[in-house]
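Design review, sub-item: ligand-bound model
Attendees: FS, YL, KQ
YL presented the inputs for the glycinamide ribonucleotide complex:
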Amino acid sequence: MRIVILGSGRGSNARAMLEAQRAGRLGRARVVHLFSDRPEAGLLALGAEFGVPAVYLDPAPFKTKLEGEGEARYIAAITACTPDLIVLAGFMRVIKPGFLTAFAGKVINLHPSLLPSFPGLDGIGQAWRRGVKITGCTVHYVTPEVDGGPIIDQAAVRVEPGDTLETLTAKVHAAEHALLPAVIARLSGG
Ligand code: GAR
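KQ shared the predicted structure:
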């Protein structure tokens, strides 16, 4: 199973996938390419470390969505990777139907809350401010409805007395780092 990862940030979840692969915990899945819409993304440094191509790909002309010329660039570059699965690991852009049609049923996303609660930006902060006692993370198929596609799996995180936004953030991230490679290993049939 050929995996392409898209991310905009530090890439800790891409790292978790690559480390799982290195440790033989990613089933039959293999990460074949990393792409980022931000040239400064930490994710891009993982390429050299793990021997996987990692490139910045211009998402213009839009700021918060992938559509038009940028979408066409992503579709062409990803198609050339012949992916079986495209993993959005902190890719902070709305994905539009053109992309989803090009890769039908192959796009999954990681979100830092128990969807359908707290979709959109800052899922951890939203949950913290609402005062929930259990939050977590979700891996789901991507559909045109933002954070609304079929849920594949979730992991729960309890908000303990004494937690701060910072400690909760660390706990949710740790849950993500376990959940996402496990889901991919399962999807790969390995
Ligand atoms: C993760 O917490 C992921 O759930 C979130 O971005 C972070 C990326 O971290 N994604 C979203 O909020 C998508 N709506 P990383 O770059 O360290 O993997």
